[in-house]
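Today's session is about reading a structure prediction critically. Students often jump straight to the picture, but the first step is always the sequence itself: look for stretches that repeat, for charged clusters, for runs of hydrophobic residues. Only then move on to the predicted structure, which in these notes is written as discrete structure tokens rather than atom positions. Here is the chain we will use throughout the hour.
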Amino acid sequence: MSVTVAMIGAGSIGFTRRLVQDILAVPEMAGTTFHLTDISERNLDMVAQLCRRDIEAHHLPARVKTFLNRRAAFTGADYVICTIRQGGLEAFQLDIEIPLRYGVDQCVGDTLCAGGIMYAQRTIPALLDFCRDIRAVAKPGAWLLNYSNPMAMNTWACHKYGSVKTVGLCHGVQGAHWQITSCIERWAKQQGLLQANEKLHRRDVDVIAAGINHQTWFIQVRWRGIDMLPRLAELFAADPTLARTEKVRIDVLRRFGYYSTESNGHLSEYLPWYRKRPEEINQWIDLSSWIHGETGGYLRVCTEGRRWFEADFPNWLKEPPPPIGPAQRSEEHGSYIIEALETGRVYRGHFNVANQGHITNLPEGAIVEIPGYVDRNGLNMPVIGALPLACAATCAASIRVQEMAMEAAVHGDVLLLKQALLHDPLTAAVCNPEEIWQMTDELLVAQAAWLPQYAAEIPAARRRLEEAQRTGTRVALKNDYRGAARVAPKSVTEMATQRAAARANAAAADKANLPPTTASPETKLDTILPPIPKRQ
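Below is the predicted structure for this chain, in token form.
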């Protein structure tokens, strides 16, 4: 098949190389042309070298072309895959560090809360630019497959304002599905329903998950015809590892009756209950892996991964190319969607799409994550009906924040941006209104380079900060607060003592499944990450 796949943000080693290998694992897709584009020529060149070497080693007819001009990369594309991190790690650090001064302690900061809201302000204008180029130069009907967070806000903006067929893709459902499967396997062996050496695959457990990205709920779980939902809280609590690492999720499961797709660290920052009192945060998290709730944990592992890849890249070129084939194919949705659209082979997954009556008690037009099927006819999304009320209430609160933040990003509306932060569950649980107003101004000023839509408003934000400083009305900050559970990023020298783990981190598209960390609690973070200047 003659298919062209453009990948923007292709300097991201984890996603780009993984998705290229996944697509080439489909026999009909062996001749795919990949258009890789990134704003970093160095990162783009490193990833392209690896992809070309992989293709040549397997004698595949695929081609890799690189572009610094995204419009040229999009020309003639059938699919555009987006994996950008707008503002890079520099902006990401600001998303975490500035809210910490106000007591807002985030683990991930890329979906909701202060970090996710600001991430949307940077990313949505870029995505709408991409959509304009796709409409202009890609093949008619080209799909945008978006992996970039904040998933719901980004996909919502593209759907409402981008006029491009867009689907949001995330691996959260698959990860949680595996957890449920492992709990059922353990229970089934105890009940004598499985032999000691039998293993369950997640395909053996039938599930329906529905909600919004990172707040999707398993509303149906069946194994061998047995309704497992009533047993899940007991099964998770009995698992010696999950009972320690997933305390927030298990507590929500006990109180709601439904398990959330997203990790302990993610879920804890979307709710107002678990991270609002610093002295209580450590009761709900576990530092064996960043994903269980570590302060700024995702920033740390992304920083380490980038440092290691850049330092170790020559060794990557010396390693034998990995095998490419069905057995090595990941569970990322992207290649399966392209395969289904091109070949007609049906693929079932959970996708982020606009709510058009699919979940009846969530707002129309919002981006929901629900099961669907893909074939040559496109995405086919069934009606789920109403979510359980507690799940719907939690999702609805987030959706209204997403809507305000999305519209603020599109229109450069500072007041709407502040109102989004004011209504964010965790931010509102920690900060009073004046603190939120000041924090928003500080974030706008610090991230001005990536916020073109606010260019006319940022000088006024700077003046407000200066006036508050001059008159003594500036709210007090927690300048020395580094979070309840901060772990220092490792240097390249430190990572070299665990080379396999460092490489796994750098190569991972899904960093939630990294090996346990051996890092110790932070003592000298400012000697590793550049400090943000403190305002007097």
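Discussion point for the tutorial: Residues 518-536 have pLDDT under 50 and may be disordered.
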